[in-house]
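Reproducibility note. Readers wishing to regenerate the assembly model reported in the main text can use the exact inputs given here. Chain order matters: entities are listed in the order in which they were concatenated for prediction.
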Amino acid sequence: MSVPMTNELLSCTVDPAADPAARAEIKALLEACDLSYEPSIEAFVTLSRGRSLIACAGLDKNIVKCAAIAPAEQGESLSLTLMTEIAHLAHARGHNHLFLYTRPDNVDRFRACGFHRLVEVPGIAAFMENTPIGMRGYCAQLRTLRQPGRDIGAIVMNANPFTFGHRHLVEYAVAHCDWLHLFVVAEDSSFIAYRDRLAMIKAGVSDLPRLTLHPGSEYMVSRATFSSYFFKEKNAAADCFTAVDLLLFRNYIAPALGITRRFVGTEPFCITTRKYNADMKDWLQRPDSPHPPVEVVEIPRRTQDEVPISASEVRRLLAAEQFGRIGRLVPPFTLALLRGKYRPGRTPSQIPDPPTRADAVSPRKGPEPYENS
Amino acid sequence: MKIVREALAGTLESSDLMVRIAPHPDLEIVLQSEVMRQFGAQIEAVARDTLDKLGVTAALVVIEDKGALDCVIRARLQTVVQRAAEEWTAEWSALS
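Running the prediction on these inputs yields the following structure tokens for the assembly.
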């Protein structure tokens, strides 16, 4: 065995969960660089010289986090080596399309590593992706789906599961614009699987005119855009949390489709969603932007027996197997799907899909919209 | 040669290039280079010629160039195609 020469640069991959000693070193380096350690990181690339760790970068699925170079080593081209290693590690783990958050003053450094800035929250964070044709390609696809009209509406919907409340919001929106673009959150981290949420929405709005149903994308309410990447200033982090998602919508998605209005339901229960709605009014409408504003229309929730209908209430009733009460809150298709696939004690993966459900659209294949005309 | 999976080759170090390839309906090359203005057209011509000799007619190729020489560009492209192709059908002797 050869002992590495003290000035030789050594690159390693670290599993932070399995290697507490390496994890402690990484934490110390991040601390020195004024960054917080992210427990969601599954793998780190580290660069060491001799016995000292001088640079690291982590991967949380396809999001690069905690990229840091020791202050004394900055100015060398270590960032190129570091980002080469992270690109190959990500590729080996099945991730080719990468995102990253960084402080705005680091944008040029990552630009040299093949990343492209998408949006910037002034003074706080920049959001970048590792391809020049990611968002550009997505917007080009969206532009082919533009519809004529003056008031073009949009809703971004998770529908976990789809209720009469969602139906009410869509009906209201369709009546208050010339065309509605309805996006389904593609991220598969909800109780109800993406393909089932898409199927429920499709069934739930199939009779409504002037509407395009879009599969979601990574650029909208996804793990990437809603990253829990927290900078040291916790308040700034809370802002950054929704601002990136909303700026992507205002600066790219809305102009591609000519969207002038975004419809949301009031949120009486969930603090996160309530904050998202409040931040939406700010980021989509603030005047100091070169991009046209998007009017935020917030409508009161539909109620049943004087209680606002919510998907979380439906999930609660589902856990108690109260299908009779669920039936008062959701359309028949949703009820049948919940009965068939989401009964308590069964996980959706245990139940094979009926062949008729093969119409679900993969979120990665780009929009294959379903248009109601 | 048919590109059936995404692949990656090369580095971001000076005088090298990082190249990504992915299945695509037609041939599209997206080039970023530190020396775009002086050598952008030349780099793209070398890339097209290399892919042509490999028989790659449909792929999305994204190149991040750091001032690589032509021979390096050819080598990296050959490697990335080898990693992404269903089956290597080129004659090495015919590639130079």
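We highlight two features of this model. Residues 229-234, 349-367 of chain A have pLDDT under 50 and may be disordered. The interface with chain B takes residues 77, 80-81, 83-84, 87-88, 91, 96, 112-114, 131-133 of chain A (CB under 8 Å).
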